Amino acid sequence: TASHLCRMACLSIMQRRTTVRRDKESRAAESHGRTHTDHDSAFLRSVLSVIGPGWLSARGEDGKSRLENSQDLVRNEIFWALQRGLPIIPVVLDDTPMPSGGDLPGEIKLLAFKQAMRLRDSHFKADARLIAKQIRTIVRGRRPSVIRRVGTITAIPLMLTLGAWAGPHVSMFVGIEPWVDIGVIKQYRKSNDFLRAAGSHSFAGALSKASSEIWFVGTTFYISVDQNENVLFEKKKSGATLNFIVVDPRSDGLASSARALNTDENQLRESCLIGLRVMSRLKRRLAELGPEFAGRLNIRLSQDALQMRAYFFDPLSPQGTTYVVPQINHSNSQGMPGYLVRHDHLELPGAYFTGVRDFWNSGHLVPFDTWLAANKDV
Predict the structure, then answer these.
(1) How far is CA 278 from CA 27, 59, 188, 247, 303, in A?
(2) How far apart, in whole angstroms, are the C-alpha atoms of residue 280 and residue 297?
(3) Chain-centre distance of CA 140, in angstroms?
(4) Residues 61-109 pLDDT 10s
(5) Smallest Cα–Cα separation from 310: which of 244, 229, 223, 236?
(6) How far apart are CA 137 and CA 139, in angstroms?
(7) Whole-prediction pTM
């Protein structure tokens, strides 16, 4: 049921080291006759099969048993895991009986002989701790040989199939300690902590490693640019190219940005102007070194509000990193989480950067020199 989906998410959050991601492709996969059996078993460490009250009796739109349907998503996921010898933990909800071998089709009959664990509403915390302990025991003893590329945010080593069939078919994936053990993503609870942190997984660390190009995309970068002006100058002087896409503080996009960020419009305008003044000063300093240096700082302004904040460090290199702050309307991005992603693990940076580069070349952005000619007071 929906309540138990929430319970499984709560289990993840309570244990802190576990994250839950819903697989958005589940419905599409089912409609095309494709299931998670397409996945390579090396990508997963274990499988949870969640069995609710309607698990055995569930029927499809044609009135036939879902268990007897050879194209059923949940059935095929279980069969796929059994075939590959993956550890399976049946999780039965409340008083739901564990199916016997006679209840199941031949393909998944072995599920009945797996050691089940119970998740009861009345004893949720105790049961959840036992399940989490069992998951960790399995994960520690079963290391994946490769990292699975899933969705847009994290690597997933353990699959959870929800077979209660009380609503739409759902598949969820559970990852154990994705930021610590796997190292795919570094999460900052508040995005601006990335600017203040030390070490390799910080703004300073990523900036020092970048050697080719660095992209800044967001409403304004008055903090990162102002506090790191000399570092950015030396980075550009050594050969790196810096590209900025920021909001035009004297366009209608500024008012839209202020509403989206839940901040005062005049205050945001001044923050944008501070950032542009610092960038203008940087351009002058580079120009004094010679014409070949001036082209290493490129700034374009958007007349529209930008939907995210992102930093791309060597975006075309597998050794690069990307820091993304997803935007939520009426929430200041400085207080929202930020995610640092290594390019050699996920396709997310490439997807975002392709969109940014297309936007850069779209003709919808105003070059900084053109903007300065019309705003000489800056």
Answers:
(1) 49, 65, 26, 15, 20
(2) 10
(3) 24
(4) 888 888 888 888 888 888 888 877 778 888 888 888 999 888 898 888 8
(5) 244
(6) 6
(7) 0.53
